[in-house]
């Protein structure tokens, strides 16, 4: 399970970096808190941060459930795929928001696999 903990820290570091980028963009664009609108560059990175947070609410418990009930190494591999997908998503969204689809789709596939695997693993364990 240590590998799943490592991947958990990686996604948290990724989210932390995005948060720092939001702060830097806010400062550069002169967007004073609590305002959430301003320069398009600020709004894009802000949306990336919010979208990533929304995904983490599902991703983290799904990865841990999959690891607990099925297989930690596969859960970690899907977790790394999710981390990479969020990087692809972020880079694409910063360039052109309409190009974010592939990164989003890859992340959703990883996330859905983790959720379904956790559910199936829990059901199979319950039926034993």
CATH homologous superfamily, by name?
Membrane associated eicosanoid/glutathione metabolism-like domain
At CATH's second level, what is the architecture? Up-down Bundle
Number of helices: 4
Element order: H for helix, E for strand? HHHH
Estimated share of beta-strand residues: under 5%
Percent helix among the residues?
over 70%
Number of strands: 0
Shape by Cα distribution = elongated
Going by helix content, strand content and strand pairing, the class is mainly alpha
Largest sheet: none
Rg (CA only):
17 Å
Distance between the termini: 22 Å
Low-confidence stretches: none
Mean pLDDT over the residues: 95
CATH classification class: Mainly Alpha
Q: How many individual domains?
A: 1
CATH-defined fold name: Four Helix Bundle (Hemerythrin (Met), subunit A)
Describe the structure.
- This protein is an all-alpha fold.
- The chain has one domain: Membrane associated eicosanoid/glutathione metabolism-like domain (Four Helix Bundle (Hemerythrin (Met), subunit A), Up-down Bundle).
- It contains 4 helices and no strands.
- The chain has helices at residues 2-29, 40-69, 72-95, 101-127.
- Helix 1 runs parallel beside helix 3, helix 2 (40-69) packs parallel to helix 4 and helix 3 (72-95) packs antiparallel against helix 4 (101-127).
- The chain is elongated, with a radius of gyration of 17 Å.
- The two termini are 22 Å apart.
- The relative contact order is 0.15.
- The mean pLDDT is 95.
């Amino acid at each position: 399970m240590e590998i799943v903990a490592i991947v958990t820290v990686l996604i948290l570091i990724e989210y932390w970096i995005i948060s720092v980028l939001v702060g830097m963009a806010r400062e550069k664009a002169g967007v004073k808190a609590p305002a959430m609108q301003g320069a398009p560059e600020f709004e894009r990175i802000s949306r990336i941060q919010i979208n990533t947070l929304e995904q983490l609410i599902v991703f983290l418990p799904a990865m841990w459930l999959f690891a607990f009930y099925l297989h930690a190494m596969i859960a970690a591999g899907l977790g790394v795929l999710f981390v990479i997908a969020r990087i692809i998503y972020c880079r694409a969204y910063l360039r052109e928001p309409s190009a974010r689809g592939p990164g989003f789709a890859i992340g959703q596939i990883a996330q859905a696999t983790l959720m379904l695997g956790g559910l199936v693993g829990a059901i199979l364990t319950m039926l034993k």
